[in-house]
Amino acid sequence: MATQLLYQSVEKSKTWDLTNATESVELESQRTGSPGKLSFKVHKSGDLAFAPGDPVRFVADGTTLFSGWVFTASFDRWGQVEIVAYDRLRYLKASASYAFYGKTAGQIIQQIAADFGLTLSTIEDTGYALPSLIMEEKTCLDIISEAVQQTLLNTAKMYIFFDDGNGLCLREARNMLSSTALGQNSLVGEFSYKRDIDSQTYNSVKLARPNETTGRADTFIAQDTGTIAKWGLLQYYATVDENLNDAQVQQQAQQTLAYYDQERKTLSLSSLGVVGLRAGQIVLMMIPNVDGLQAQQLVMLDSVTHTFQQGLHTMEIQTLNLF
Question: Are 15 and 55 in contact (CB under 8 A)?
């Protein structure tokens, strides 16, 4: 595997290839809520110059895995510099207020990207227009995340928002199926497995729709009596758009229940590295003889941390069992 770490100094108008000057490079991606992160350490020598805002690019086997900008440059007395860079999603931590009406998640992303001068890559059409999305003094990343979440709860389709190195992307998770298979006999070393209903599990959904005529909210409920008897009542409550009709709110309640009414099964594992694997992708997992886990199943990658160190490429992964 051939890697290349390119660092550009804006001040000096010069680019350095730091591939052989770093002992390790770490690349992190999260499925939701965080920008891609690249970090590395290098010893300052010659005319090397480091400053916030400098562009950084990391390439492996000819594929750009990261393209971003320095946000932190830490220097010690021995001349070692620690660099932390983020991709375009970092700029979406800016606070803003928006009111969207009849827009899809993709159209919302396109509008925000245009307002902040951010490049777009693949933006898939979700086919679902949110009746309205009004958010005040929230980060742009939170606004987009809410649009993606509302799309999921109304269509049962999960979309992943990320930076692919060329620009902002929105892709349906099922279109991000990787040919990679991970398992005890294929790349994976140590792993831990957890089953829980403690986070993101609900078997009763109550949605409230404001009603200006009565002055009170209309409520819509979807429940699973079977899991309520098994786990106890775990309720999810949310307010929905007042412009939705009864059928739309009830459908959203059922879709929300279908998404949350399940035991969560997660794997945390260490593995040999696979170039290009990132959070949001779906892979085939093969780890037999673990309670409640199928021998082979498709799982979504919730977080992936790659470490490239002296010719060795490893990964730390956490998965979701959504497929």
Answer: no
